[in-house]
Specification:
The complex is a heterodimer.
Chain A lengths: L1 E4 L5 H8 L6 E8 L11 E8 L1 H18 L4 E7 L1 E4 L3 E9 L2 H18 L2 E7 L4 E3 L4 H8 L7
Parallel strand pairs in A: 1-4
Antiparallel strand pairs in A: 2-6, 3-5, 3-7, 4-6, 7-8
Chain B lengths: L1 E6 L1 H7 L3 E5 L6 H11 L2 H7 L4 E4 L2 E3 L11 E5 L6
Parallel strand pairs in B: 1-5
Antiparallel strand pairs in B: 1-2, 3-4, 3-5
Classes of the chains: A alpha+beta, B alpha+beta.
Chain lengths: ~150, ~80
């Protein structure tokens, strides 16, 4: 299941969606809005997430398919919020379900690493003076993705 | 023919709009379009000089400037993504 939404989500409800007695392991990744500093050392009060929804859905579908295939998952759920989010709010949820833990854990990491560099979302910091500041892509995110190159078909 | 341009992130902020509908001659390619847009607004020069900007035509990435555009195409200009 893939969802892009401007509404929050309930972890227990989403877990019920992937829950099944064929699974012996689940891995969760939950990304939230942290209290951060802007590039000019100003405290942020939240974030704004922009999205090219048609493209992002197609890209997420491709990532999910790779995760399902390469780690023999039984289910993979990806939810990503868009719009204005306050500090502490949930941004993104990935749940992978498989028979054994290693597959679920690795696949979950692959999905969030891929999402960070390959899906059409853009983050802006919302500052206290009501201005927005674009968040730049981190080199670390690109470097992390390299480790999956030889593993993924 | 008409094609839709979509702008995201800093490109949308710089241009102060999220999209454009533009009229082009038949058999226009991406390179011709870029030249036309630079004449229309010099901000496009900065966009096209940025190697990190990707071009998606009808949801598929293109990097060939000779790629021919067709009536009804949707071309999106995408800076590096920062979701998650």
């Amino acid at each position: 299941m893939i969802k892009i939404t401007n509404e929050s989500f309930d972890l227990e409800k989403e877990f019920k969606f992937v829950s099944s007695d064929i699974n012996g392991a689940y891995s969760f990744f939950l990304g939230t809005v942290r209290s951060d500093l802007s590039s000019l050392n100003k405290k942020i009060k939240g974030i704004y997430l922009e999205c090219y929804e048609e493209l992002a859905l197609a890209q997420l579908k491709k990532i999910r398919s790779k995760a399902l295939y390469n780690w023999k998952l039984n289910e993979c759920l990806i939810i990503h919020r868009i719009g204005k989010l306050d500090l502490g709010e949930k941004i993104v949820l990935v749940i992978t379900a498989s028979s054994h833990r290693t597959n679920a854990i690795e696949a979950c990491e692959f999905v969030i690493d891929s999402l960070k560099i390959d899906v059409a979302f853009w983050k802006f910091h919302l500052l206290n003076d009501d201005t927005k500041e674009m968040v730049s892509q981190k080199n670390l995110d690109n470097e992390k993705m390299l480790k999956w190159k030889d593993i993924i078909n | 023919m008409n094609i839709t341009l979509k702008y995201f992130s800093w490109i949308r902020v710089k241009l102060k709009k999220s999209h454009d509908l533009i009229e082009l001659n038949q058999k226009t390619n991406l390179k011709d379009l870029k030249n036309k847009l630079i004449l229309k607004d010099p901000i496009f020069q900065e966009i096209f000089e940025d190697d990190s900007v990707k071009y998606f035509l009808n949801l598929k990435e293109i990097d060939d400037e000779n790629h021919t555009l067709n009536n009804g195409d949707i071309l999106a200009f995408l800076p590096p993504v920062t979701g998650g």
